[in-house]
């Protein structure tokens, strides 16, 4: 890799150079790595530097405003930039296909001069004026699984509520052990989701885990209630619940609203289905 300094091609060298970190230095800059190029400045004329650098990385890019007027333009196909540092972009465009951002840093806004007497002290002082962009990852499969666990109690409770309502309107009574098995199936879904998402991605892992859990619960309900109709109703409700959970996990801005509406709808449906039940007579029938 080379740089063109006023028409002279000079190769880069490893390290920050002896002018920044002398061989006998023992300060905090010794752990900093980098590259440098020796450029001889003769007289007071302009110094024009031209180079091309290929960067590899996945987290961020930082820039120091070392020029009297620093103009920077960054364009990328990454759709989720996170701008940081002492200076925010002067203009920016962010969309689904990527972003464009431009910075203009004037000389007076930098907070440090154009020349220094101590290279080590100057390097540690100017790093605080860095600016740039981080390539923010909004949601990966681990984050989605973590978010789904926050709704685990809610959706296990809704599955129990569905079983309870179907049990209440039917003549078949369920044992506490049966409720425990149903709850275990719902909890196992999150373990399947985590383990499968590491191999096939979150969407396929969610679909596979949901189909397996709903199928297992529906078949067990068929045997417990001895009614394919009630088992089918339970399967349809669980399918809707897992579908809503997937929507909530991918709707960052409306997750709380959707969750509140689901709770309200579940309560309203329970009140409507059980509105004519005589709870006193039902309780007496359950007591041996």
Topology:
Layout: E1 2-5, E2 8-11, E3 13-14, E4 35-36, E5 49-51, E6 60-63, E7 70-76, E8 81-85, E9 91-95, E10 98-105, H1 119-126, E11 131-135, H2 141-150, H3 152-169, H4 176-200, H5 202-225, H6 228-250, H7 255-273, H8 279-286
Antiparallel strand pairs: 1-2, 1-5, 3-4, 6-11, 7-10, 8-11, 9-10
Helix pairs in contact: 2-4, 3-4, 3-6, 4-5, 5-6, 6-7
Tell me what the structure shows.
47% of the residues lie in helices and 17% in strands. With 288 residues, the chain is of the alpha+beta class. It has three domains: 1-54, no CATH class; 58-138, no CATH class; 141-286, no CATH class. The strands form four sheets. A three-stranded antiparallel β-sheet has the order 2-1-5, with no helix packed on it. A hairpin with a 2-residue loop joins strand 9 and strand 10 (98-105). Helix 2 (141-150) packs antiparallel against helix 4. The relative contact order is 0.08. The model has no long low-confidence stretch (mean pLDDT 78).
Q: What key attributes describe this structure?
A:
three-stranded antiparallel beta sheet, single chain, 8 helices, 3 domains, 288 residues
Helix amount: 40-55%
Per DSSP, the total helix count is 8
Number of domains: 3
The low-confidence runs, each spanning 5 or more residues with pLDDT under 50, are none
User: What sequence of helices (H) and strands (E) makes up the elements?
Assistant: EEEEEEEEEEHEHHHHHHH
Cα gyration radius (Å): 32 Å
What would you call the structural class? Answer: alpha+beta
Mean pLDDT, rounded to whole units? 78
**Shape assignment:** elongated
How large a portion of the residues is in β-strands, by DSSP E? Answer: 15-25%
Oligomeric state of this protein: single chain
């Amino acid at each position: 890799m080379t740089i063109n300094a006023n028409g002279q091609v000079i190769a880069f060298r490893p390290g920050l150079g002896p002018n920044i970190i002398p061989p006998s230095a023992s300060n905090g800059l010794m752990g900093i790595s980098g590259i440098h190029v020796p450029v001889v400045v003769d007289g007071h004329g302009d110094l024009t530097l031209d180079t091309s650098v290929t960067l590899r990385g996945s987290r961020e890019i930082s820039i120091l405003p070392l020029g009297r007027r620093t103009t920077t333009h960054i364009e990328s196909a990454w759709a989720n930039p996170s701008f940081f540092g002492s200076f925010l972009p002067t203009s920016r465009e962010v969309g689904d296909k990527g972003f464009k951002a431009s910075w203009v840093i004037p000389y007076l806004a930098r907070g440090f001069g154009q020349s220094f007497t101590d290279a080590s002290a100057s390097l540690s002082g100017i790093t605080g004026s860095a600016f740039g962009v981080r390539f923010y990852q909004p949601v990966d499969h681990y984050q989605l699984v973590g978010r789904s666990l926050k709704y685990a109690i809610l959706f296990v409770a809704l599955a129990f509520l569905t079983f309870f309502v179907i049990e209440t309107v039917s003549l078949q009574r369920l044992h506490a052990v049966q409720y425990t098995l149903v709850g275990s199936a719902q909890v196992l879904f999150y373990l399947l989701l985590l383990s499968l998402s590491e191999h096939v991605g979150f969407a396929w892992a969610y679909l596979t885990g949901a189909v397996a859990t709903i199928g297992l619960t529906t078949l067990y309900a068929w045997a417990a209630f001895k009614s394919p109709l009630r088992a089918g109703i339970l399967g349809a409700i669980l399918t809707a619940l897992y579908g809503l959970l997937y929507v909530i996990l991918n709707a960052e801005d409306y997750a709380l609203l959707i969750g509140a509406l689901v709770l309200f709808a579940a309560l309203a449906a329970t009140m409507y289905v059980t509105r004519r039940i005589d709870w006193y007579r039902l309780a007496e029938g359950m007591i041996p």
